């Protein structure tokens, strides 16, 4: 490995261990304060990345300086434990670092676990350098080798020292990379596999049923299945193709390419199988270099021509205008959890980067294409913060332009390479199919792909892993247009738009150029209009408004998206007209004004394009001009609403010109705007309902703005649109947005509200601010006019009950003050700053005067354990409201107003009632668990299992109750079936106490004990005889069972 590569690995390893002291290190290495602060501000990859950048800057600044200087710097900042990382590589280096990780306590446990003779254990304990002696002993006995440390890791896992396992595992891989051999590969593979794939692999390889069960129940199932695959030849030092095939065929949530790269990295000296050693021929290596050069030139040209809004003609570089938008990601295999992502640099790194396919989704105008351009720019410029540095070839294709093309290789040649390129489709195919060439394909605008509904198009073939299984893929699309068949195999990113910080950053950087007074003026206009602030969560709207206000220096109040977008379009026309007014004659000015107000042909063309079976979003220029007229066309090109671009003529050389001109809208939203005019005009002229198949041709989930704009443009259009949306499954939420766009009579509005609240009204976790505000307005409008609200369903977004101000507060800050006609309130997985008190619950029941049912389904926040009966007024008792609580453990409870206590309402389907009490649980969480155990016991409900996760302290001698670390006590449970206890140290006396407790629980048939230190033997006479008669099973790690006859552990 080159010296630079070695240092890079060392720096990466150090950065992982030095998160907090990176600034101190930078100053100790004599970097200027300005450099350190620049890294702090510009680097968005977290503290590890900042530390890494400090080390790289020091290395460049010093001209490959000595690592001894780095070691001295670590001594100065009191991190001498990291000095070994700067010194040795290879197995000796690993042993040196291992000595800094192990402790006296750990080596004693290891020596005992390995069965060392008592004399050896005593020698290790008494030696001054006992840790080094232990390492020597392990090496002599083959428990650590230059190629394998599996035995050491197994021993540590038995003792549940998982944090140490991970650190040693990383250390071994880093110090021996890339010369670690097959053993190092197996260690690295254990970090790539997950518990969830063990059963799938075992089933695919047709392991015996008893072995599959053992793998499923083993505490260290990952290492165990790696051992099984090794023993059965499914992985060998020269071939892992059976494993790779299993991952592909079973479509497991593992990156095939990452596993293959890992194998090649550690076994490069072996004569591996053909798929692992497919080196490039000199000719293909030359084609690779040419391809990369030509792609870089193409992408740099594209990324230097960014136009933030239509009427800004001076093109800018993407790095000058790009601003990070909010991003949430959903890990592979997780259907519910969205987590925040801090930067676009994280797309291909960390846990999220493990998925081969990643989908970036977002609503119209949320910056998907800008994200694609930024990624292409990072690759071209070699941004050191970007994980794209590890990508050899980036293929960035706009799917809007790929209709009719039969392969990705054809698309690359025809759409990305110059006409005179010597690279052929066959060259591209050979490069992309070679697993030694790290390739990322970025498909932009899948929702605009003309062939997406055609079976077996080449994009689907790649997504479904029928071809190019090793290639990484990023695909951008609208949230309503996720490709079928790849949901469970992909990572998902959702763009959530601009918050106040991002908007301020963009205005200051791009609009005002740092002019603080102008920045404050523009931001103030956002903040004075709450509707505008919500609309401008979409970056496109925010950008257009900021530039328009900066140009015109006016402030307009908006009440709907239709008003806002109409104003923007008028601004574009006015801006162009103001520039041309000194040259235009009166006749020309009248013509321009006519173009502004009369665009029927463009409306009709847009409507036809969006309602076609395959949406048409680009047109041949000659055809387009013939439809609209030359003057109209040139006017809209000048404004910027239409964009003309030169593209490859796919019929060349059959046709003489290699290029042709195509026309498209600046953004698809403009096409929806003009299509909405035609839709509204049709409804106004016919005053009839829409055709039933319209929502099939123009799916509201994809084209919601067509319907919203139509309702806002003409009051007569709103009723038939709303009627159609309300009758279409899953379109209620779009109807809510459309209802708030319309400008009809008060009676018309109330009829719409009445119909919308007659079914469930939802506020979901990923709703935009505009949709949240609109839904709140809908509910309050209904309550103000005495209209019953059937059900309000809230997921994740609840913040608190504000009793002082008599309102209900959402996380985004929106307040619902009027809930008088609400009939059902269902709150699911909601989180609050605190648990809900009895006073808050009673306030809610009184505030919702017509409430019939309150269903609270949450593990994050809890309702009170009980309420004093006298707190319930006679009127409240008479209303007989169902107050239902589901804490998520298998039983659902209803509050009894007469006694103020919870009673079992029903049992959830899908499994037995079970409870887990964690040491980290809040006091109320533990008390709720104890109350559930009590209620279940009194009702005769079987308790499937009780798990105490590090929350167990002892068993009381007087009454045989379990005492938790919090001081709470668990009495003898007559209906308990299985007890699991996790902890640190368990001595023989405590084991006997636990067995005595289990004896008093007549239905317990299994006891699981997972402690780091376990007694090897217990006096048999102390074990309650009743347990032997009952056939109790007592087990621990690695299928060790406790023999109740002998008092010893045996491995089954």
Keywords:
1052 residues; alpha/beta; seven-stranded mixed β-sheet; 46% helix; 15% strand; disordered N terminus
Could you walk me through the main structural features you see in this protein, from its secondary elements to its overall organization?
A 7-stranded mixed sheet has the order 2-1-7-3-6-5-4, sandwiched between helices. Helix 19 packs across helix 21 (368-381). It contains 45 helices and 30 strands. Mean pLDDT is 81; it is low at 1-5 and 269-278. Helix 44 (988-1000) links the parallel strand 26 and strand 27 (1006-1013). By secondary structure, the protein is α/β, with parallel strands linked by helices. 38% of the residues are buried.
Give a quick summary of the entry:
This protein is an alpha/beta fold and 1052 residues long. It is 46% helix and 15% strand.
